[in-house]
Amino acid sequence: MQANAPLPSLAARRRALQQLAAGAAVLGLSGCGFALRKAPTFAFKTIRLVGSTGTPVASELRATLAVNGLQVVSGATPADVVLTVATDQRERIAVGQTAAGQVRELQLRTRFVFFLRTSTDKDLIENVELLVERDLSFTETAVLSKAAEEELLYRDMVSDIVQQVLRRLAAVKSL
């Protein structure tokens, strides 16, 4: 370095440090095995849904399975596996009240119970109960907005359950 050379500005040094830190982060993540979640792969090609199939969770599950490459069959059409929806219910419970007895907090629950078998009745996934809960504050003055918020929370819970079911189905490695 020459004696007369100007020192790099503070901004240039900061930029160089940020680039160095970003490079170190990329190297660190690649070494730890981090990878983005990929689309699931299944050990079967066709699936039949039976049981409570007209519910919101079953409807979204059917659509999500089709999007992920599975053929969802109905009726007497043969399928590799049969997913039976034993329970799909929503619950709304008051968990907090004021001294005057007015509801201040609700707990929303979605309960989904299913099992998976081959067409020859071999159990692949035994009864699994998925329970998702969300808390919702409640005020009498904002009933319409709270109803809309409740519906959004239920939709979020349905999506959460469908993703959990998908991961469990993808964990089945052989029939």
From TrEMBL:
Pfam families documented for this protein: LptE
Entries under Gene3D superfamilies matching the protein: Lipoprotein like domain (3.30.160.150)
Stored InterPro entries: LPS_assembly_LptE
Tell me if Membrane is a UniProt keyword of this record.
Answer: yes
Keywords, sorted A to Z: Cell outer membrane, Lipoprotein, Membrane, Palmitate, Signal
Q: How does it assemble?
A: Component of the lipopolysaccharide transport and assembly complex. Interacts with LptD.
Q: What does this protein do?
A: Together with LptD, is involved in the assembly of lipopolysaccharide (LPS) at the surface of the outer membrane. Required for the proper assembly of LptD. Binds LPS and may serve as the LPS recognition site at the outer membrane.
Q: Which family does it belong to?
A: Belongs to the LptE lipoprotein family.
* Protein's name according to its UniProt entry: LPS-assembly lipoprotein LptE
Organism field: Hydrogenophaga laconesensis
